[in-house]
Amino acid sequence: MPRMTAATLRASPAIRRWSNAVAQFRKIMWVALISGSISGLVLFALQHLTIHPIIQSAEIYEARAEQSHAPEEPAPTDSPRNASWEPAEGWQRISLTALSTVLTGIGFAALLFGLATLWSAPMSTMRGLRWGLAGLACFVLAPSLGLPPEPPGMMAADLQSRQLWWLATAAATAGGLLLLGECKQGWLVRIAGLIVLVLPHVIGAPHDIQNQIVPDDLIRQFQIASITTNAVFWLLLGTLGGYLSARWIKTHPAS
């Protein structure tokens, strides 16, 4: 059996495909790292300036409500094992919030441009902007139709049921948009896309609104600021990632 040299291995189609796949994956991760970090930092700065003061105001109402409903007998102190850790106010909370926002941005960027590459869509700055708009629709606008952003102190339904509806709505919106915008299989597929798109809203989001302890105008300010800052994040992420992908990632037109 002839001995396989390094040049022979490099010439093997399987080795070349594997090498190209690894190189593509590395480029996608670089696009996600750069675009997600920049977009995440911008989102953190915007939210720190606009949403953080609203949260502090809402927490004052929440604390007053808890004090008014506090029992006369002091509650037993949590044991160290059961006490949950929370970051201290100040730089500890700010730095951890910034880190989590940047990591979330990188994760969304990896998901967005990984899917775009798998979809074999030739990427450009404008196409990246379209993918950013799709991300905004899937992860912000569509879920907000049923479950608007909630400041502290806003009574809502069970957390698990809200998370389940949010995930189902994001997935259904992504599937519906792909069927409507990317597939060219005729009107039956597009009708199916419309059905998938509206199905979570027909089912309805879980609601259990009780007596609100936060004023309506504060809730409205929080919702507007949250949706607006997230819109800036997704548009910047899509545009920047599309620009970088067009230069680094080779894709082929969808057949």
Describe it.
The model has no long low-confidence stretch (mean pLDDT 83). By secondary structure, this protein is mainly α. The two termini are 41 Å apart. The relative contact order is 0.17.
Spell out the key features of this protein.
mainly alpha; globular; 255 residues
Topology overview:
Elements: H1 6-11, H2 13-68, H3 91-118, H4 125-146, H5 159-181, H6 187-203, H7 216-248
Helix pairs in contact: 2-3, 2-7, 3-7, 4-5, 4-7, 5-6
Give a brief rundown of this model:
By secondary structure, this protein is mainly alpha-helical. Helix content is 73%, strand content 0%. It has 7 helices and no strands.
Give the helices and strands as they follow along the chain: HHHHHHH
What is the molecular shape?
Answer: globular
Number of alpha- plus pi-helical segments = 7
Based on secondary structure, the structural category is mainly alpha
Helix content: over 70%
Main pleated-sheet profile:
none
Mean pLDDT: 83
